[in-house]
Amino acid sequence: MNEAWWKRAVVYQIYPKSFQDTTGNGIGDLQGIIKRLDYLQTLGIDVIWLTPVYQSPQKDNGYDISDYFSIDPTYGTMEDFEELLNEAHKRNIKLIMDLVINHTSTEHNWFKQAAKSKENSYRDFYIWQDPVNGGPPNNWQSKFGGPAWQYDETTNQYYLHLFDVTQADLNWENKELREKIYKMIQFWAEKGIDGFRLDVINLVSKNQDFPNDSVGDGRKFYTDGPRIHEYLHEMHQEVLGPYNMMTVGEMSSTTLDNCILYTKPERQELDMTFQFHHLKVDYPNGEKWTIAPFDFLQLKEILSKWQVGMYEGGGWNALFWCNHDQPRAVSRFGDDHEYRVTSAKMLATTLHMMQGTPYIYQGEEIGMTNPGFSSIRQYRDVESHNAYNLMKEEGKSEQEIMAILQRKSRDNARTPMQWSSAPNAGFTSGEPWIPIADNHKKVNQEEALEDKDSVFYHYQRLIELRKKYDIITYGDFQILKPSDPDVFAYTRKWNGETLLVINNFYKKEVEWELEISTGKNVEILLSNYEDSLQKPDRIRLRPYESIVYYIK
């Protein structure tokens, strides 16, 4: 079987700003990542995904790029980057970069030129429209709040920004622009990197009529847009394929059918996709800025739908609970106090026993939690500050707003990596760019490595199992008891083998009965309690108990 290497790889996402500082300026850097490569090798991961380290005004933490060909001095130099790549490769760790090509910073030279006049040769690299009735061209909304159009007085036109006002959307209809993007990809591929994570890539093709949206925020006119598959295939043909790049596309508000098309190997578009439907289960009626328990049955239904759908459709999933935009999984779906270790292991098992390529976000492997900030002054994220102001205008109390931000802010994932119980958690000798979580004295990497029962060693074991058992990569997926309100259980079957995965998602004890006979050859591959029952036919599951049975 000719297997793509990434099918049983595990990816580790690094948010460099918060990983490890070596200069004392309170901001993580590339040398800090180099310093921690041995730790990542011990964990057993195969790939590092680096969020953007390109030159940027940092209005949106590097997702606003002003020069695609240079490293932001905050993180170091091109020599530092090359050393990181080299040192990672020495340890058999691959490196993929973040590719942000839906928009650039308004500080990018292309945009500065484009804004000079309507006749400028770079004008068409961006999306400009005339005013309509003295206002914006249509009623599309920015994903960060407010209109998606910004008026430019010099040329009396509006430019489109689906994100921050300093992030101007690129015009993919322009062939010359696309060729410049492919040249830039080639530059990094020639350096020897191993692939890309493509930021909001399914938004690059816009409906060229730019119609008003009668009910929504406009997303239906640019999400999985008219020419998206054509563009992805072209990019694959031009650069991604020839350089054998691993690719994962971040897909905003996408569909299963589209993701099958994006990732079917014969279509030559992308290798795998991130979708976020399972991370909206605590957004009642789609509302993020509110407090609600997560809808467990919906969570099971969505994850199962994507497992079965991608398996049957021949696509490939990227599996994840956490990233730099999401709250910490153990605080969101587990218990970040009494059962922090147990529930973090349960969540890891639930995901890592599925089909796909798992992504671990820095700190997830030691069970890091939301920091529980108590003041808006502790937050740095533009989206959180916008939401704070909007909620203030809506008349919510300070207490209520802080409670919501404590659960939902993107900064929950962005507090510095907790390396030790030392001051500033061993992250910096200076003043950290964002406060460090108070629990770093007990939740840190040093403690995790010393305790053989820690979350870290559970992740290490999950990575080993994926390498050893083909069934994790190739088996089918079937959910058991989809309407069970407490337990997420499923089977994976392949070549006469079965994996039975049982996860109690709550802190109460529950009875669980298997409705099929397992036969004699049953062994426990992994559990988060030392004395889980050897036979799964009828079990009393303890709080957050998680067991993987291998049946031959």
TrEMBL record:
Keywords recorded for this protein, A-Z: Cytoplasm, Glycosidase, Hydrolase
Known EC number: 3.2.1.93
InterPro entries linked to this entry: GH, GH13_cat_dom, Glyco_hydro_b, O16G_dom_2, SusG-like_C, Trehalose_TreC
Domain Glycosyl hydrolase family 13 catalytic: 13-414
One Pfam match: Alpha-amylase
Top-level lineage group: Bacteria
One BP annotation, GO: trehalose catabolic process
GO molecular-function terms, A-Z: alpha,alpha-phosphotrehalase activity; alpha-amylase activity
Location, primary (coarse class): cytoplasm
Cellular location(s): Cytoplasm
Entry GO CC: cytoplasm
PANTHER family in alphabetical order: ALPHA-AMYLASE FAMILY MEMBER (PTHR10357), TREHALOSE-6-PHOSPHATE HYDROLASE (PTHR10357:SF217)
Family recorded in the similarity comment: Belongs to the glycosyl hydrolase 13 family.
Protein name: Alpha,alpha-phosphotrehalase
Organism: Virgibacillus halodenitrificans (Bacillus halodenitrificans)
